[in-house]
Queue: 2 jobs
Job 1
Amino acid sequence: MRVKIPDYKDAESILDESERQMAFTLTLPTSDTSAFTVVRNIYECFRMLGDAILVSQGIESDDHVAPINALLKLEVNTSRPTSAIDNLRRLRRKINYYGYHPTKAEADDSVDLAKSCFPSLLGAVKKEIADKR
Amino acid sequence: MLKKIKIVSSSSISPIEYVDAYGKVQHLFFDFPTKEFSLNDLCALAKISKTSANLAVTQLAKEGFLKLETIGRLWRISCDQSHPYNRERKIPYHLALIYSSGILDAVHKAVPGARSISLFGSIRKGDDIESSDIDIAVEILSDKGPEMIELGTVPRFGYRKDVPVNLHVFSRNNIPLNLFANIANGIVLEGFLEVRP
């Protein structure tokens, strides 16, 4: 972890890109073949939200745990628990480093999690950054 | 049918070796709660001196955890299974053994899509005895009903040997409510188990 000067512009750019990528990813059809792309993209969009929080606090993280933890600290009302995003982090790790091939069911679950949690989290992160400026 | 997996510990030192005589005697009775030991048997199994064992047993008997019966010049030592140590100290002790036993790595090998891994059953509740199995619930994403798999045996689980590990692989889409409630009241070892109010 490295401590830097908070960069709100960078944080907002990350948020915009995360929102854009999530909107596109949710248009992708899910299947056993596309599952790894869908899961990884959805996870990446959540991680970017966490990263935006850290960038706005002047923190550059070395791993994926810190951004996800920053995201999970937010108090939001969602239909599924936000802690399930940590399962997504582990799934992405298995895909990238252990050659795990996710199933359509796992991709569908990721899409469901994104639909349940992403809009509220995005709003909460936007608000947090706006409040700090 | 899953081929039984060899469960290998990542640590060369078992948690039972970190502790003093008092801890070793406690752990021995956590692992063999229904057995009676003489002081000599206890010293040999826990690998402690007679003097240390005497002090530890006397102290634990004073605390009500052990029961002492004198037959001639011999002690018959047993455990009071209703004593609170059998929950407040035994459950964390077994949890440490599970984490250091290599079970989690073996579960990942057997079930690559595991979302959450939970400990439930007698070991989670602390009412296990020497013949109890280790019950592990593994959540996956599918529509299949729950399935029980014999994962293999842990060669050394505290003072116990060759303890069988049963995997209960389930999906939240197809599981009887009572089984799910049991699992949800277990201890999540890894991952995040979603429950709804």
Job 2
Amino acid sequence: MPKENEVQFTKLIIVEGNHERDFFTAWLNHLNLTEIQVLPIGGKTRLAENLRPLVKQPKFSQVESIIIVRDADDNPDGAFQSVCSALSGVNLPVPGSPEHYITQNNIKVAAVITPCNGRVGALEEILLETAETDPLYPAAIEFISTGTRTLDQTQARLAPPPHKQGKAKIHAFLATFEEPDKDPGKAALAGVWNFDHPALNPIREILEQM
Amino acid sequence: MINHLSIENFRSHKHAELSDCGRINILLGKNNAGKTAVLEAILMLCFPPNPREVLIVLNEQRGYKPGEENSELWDSYFYDWDSTQAIVLTANERSYASRLNVCQQLFVVAQTGFTGVYTSGSVVEGQNALAKTTGLNFKYQYEEGYIEKKVTSLKRKSSQSLDPKAKEIINRISPIAFIPSKGIANPQDEAERFSRLEKMNHHHEVEDALRIVEPRLKRLSVIASGKSSMVYGDLGDNHLIPVSLMGEGMVRMLSIASAMANNKGGIVLIDEIENGLHYSVLPFLWKMIFTTAKALGIQVFAATHSDECLHAASQVVQKNSFTTDLRLFRLDLHEGKTAVTDYSADELAVAIASDQEVR
């Protein structure tokens, strides 16, 4: 039986964890891009060490293209440099800027720093944008905004910092569904997100060029 | 310890190199990737200069009957069965031969027993005259110089004449043991090995190892019957039982533990190490191997297909800080070439934790 993160395909998307894996799996299915494998082995602090055995896997020599996806958090440049350093550590091509491919030695590599275009935050920011026409969207956004303001005034406890507001809002939004405990990845598998929304275009273009 | 091994034109390997070998080396790869061939190459290079015995061992391991001779055997050792290209094995370990060249030759055999290399036109054909036979010429390079040996028959000899240089080398070089993947080891050999350990009062290590598989074992004993002898085990019943009747796991553990205890400063080669052993035993087996190898200065090369075996090795290494002692080598045959991918103990641990494939 193949291992969960055994390289099987020639096109790989390396993501941070299972939420991202579920999201990309659902989206790729929607895009009918079925020859791309999503590997959740790129946790922020473990990308470099997990890449070392990845490039030694039996079928890695057949890999043609790789996208590494990670959140910008509060430092998009730092996140990109961290990915570049991990790629360099295993002698993979290092892209010159986020969301652009580099091709060397017959392998194509790109780093996608979500929410893309140099913004702080995470993949959740983009997912929220895809849900902005939902009737419950304003209420969920307002709940977190009001909560943050209240916490700032009362000093009762720390509110989510700016780069984690997207994560907070998405959980508030997902709590409005019939099954209120889904994470963003499971929500993707359940068809919550609008995969055709223009907010996803920067990443879609990269996926289609794999 | 062998740090670097190079294999040319042997079995499935046109060319293969293992670099930065460690105290314990695990060989991985698909079926027919050439894992057993690497073990055989090490045996051929490091065994005392008695190539006939090595070839007999290799043939038996590959399923040929003891002493069987047929023309295909001579070609079978060569890459792609092409005996026009010599086998060349090299290693950087001074305790053994540093280089071995093996080539096929046509020999002449006189009735006196003299064997010489056949040169076209030098042999007078005729009844009761010289006969031509195919064989292999082995040229070993030792610190003391070269030793050449010819093998024209694969039947065991009870004794062989040795020149003083060969005797000196045989007395000096470190021991090597080869534990094949399947079958029961010769009970007589096991009995002799165990007797040697008992004489030196080291038999307890082997008994402790066997208790991992059979906790009821009280002691082992060599019992002679006629000209043969066997290792028996006392399980607390009213009679002792031959270890060979206790199950494959006990036989396997006896072979491995006894080989380790008997090979101080040497090399132990183990093919498909997990064979016959329940997965729960594997961490204890690895603990015994690492501990004994470090204590006695033994280098181990072990082949496996088993994921459980790798998990057990990694678990033991991480728990006991043996990380610098373990190396993994995966062999991949691709378009006739052997690609060797090596892993450190830490890379193995990361691969296991992130559920990645290494085999």
